[in-house]
Amino acid sequence: xxxxxxxxxxxxxxxxxxxxxxxxxxxxxxxxxxxxxxxxxxxxxxxxxxxxxxxxxxxxxxxxxxxxxxxxxxxxxxxxxxxxxxxxxxxxxxxxxxxxxxxxxxxxxxxxxxxxxxxxxxxxxxxxxxxxxxxxxxxxxxxxxxxxxxxxxxxxxxxxxxxxxxxxxxxxxxxxxxxxxxxxxxxxxxxxxxxxxxxxxxxxxxxxxxxxxxxxxxxxxxxxxxxxxxxxxxxxxxxxxxxxxxxxxxxxxxxxxxxxxxxxxxxxxxxxxxxxxxxxxxxxxxxxx
Length: 289
What we know:
The chain is α+β, with helices and mostly antiparallel strands and 289 residues long. The protein folds into 2 domains: 9-137, Thiol Ester Dehydrase, Chain A (Roll); 162-288, Thiol Ester Dehydrase, Chain A (Roll). 23% of the residues lie in helices and 38% in strands. It contains 6 helices and 12 strands. It has helices at residues 9-18, 20-25, 56-75, 162-165, 169-174, 205-224; strands spanning 28-33, 36-41, 82-91, 100-109, 113-122, 127-137, 177-182, 185-190, 230-240, 249-259, 262-271, 277-288. It has a 12-stranded antiparallel sheet with strand order 1-2-4-5-6-3-9-12-11-10-8-7. The longest helix has 20 residues, at 56-75. The protein is globular and about 50 Å long. 44% of the residues are buried.
């Protein structure tokens, strides 16, 4: 069966094209079929960090999209809704002012889940990120009761860096605001915005992952404070506990271990209205002189 003969292709393509979040990023579906998909993300300043480097949240988004795209096509539209139950992203290099592609490949199909490998690279062939995703299909099952976040102590000190974070291109587009960033802890909020929406109705998983990634990074900066440093995320481990709802999100980060320049930060994203946990994970971050 070719991709043009695949009856699920139009539904998957329409999902990508009609999701405000992926439209804002500029994601394009190049090909789909036989357990494989290729996505393309042309460079846009709005998707970058200072220095025109692609934000890590964009690479995580492509990893999640690759996993979801292959799963939706493999299991069919009747398997909805879907969510990224487990994701491991290793960031291999930076993309500076370059278009990137994401090649997703089905590793194994189960009854209600798929395991997918995703490689993100520049058009010149430089590997940017490698990811594996476990995507769960709920086949119409009702959402489970979600655990409530423990939150934090309510401190509100964004420090000297906090007010500037939301002004960077990618995070500014997401509307992310740093409320607290001190003592190895962070709290960020991402108000509901159509720019972060999924065509399925809630916040897009890519926007959730971007918030999770940023929260872990800010916890690390909350421990070191500002300085003449270089920093990056070498790896992200995340679990999205169900299809994200529509509404404001709040995220909490905490450094649980530091080894010289490497920081391990636990991060949790929850619904701001009721504290129900949407996603959780660990961000490995590196800050070097």
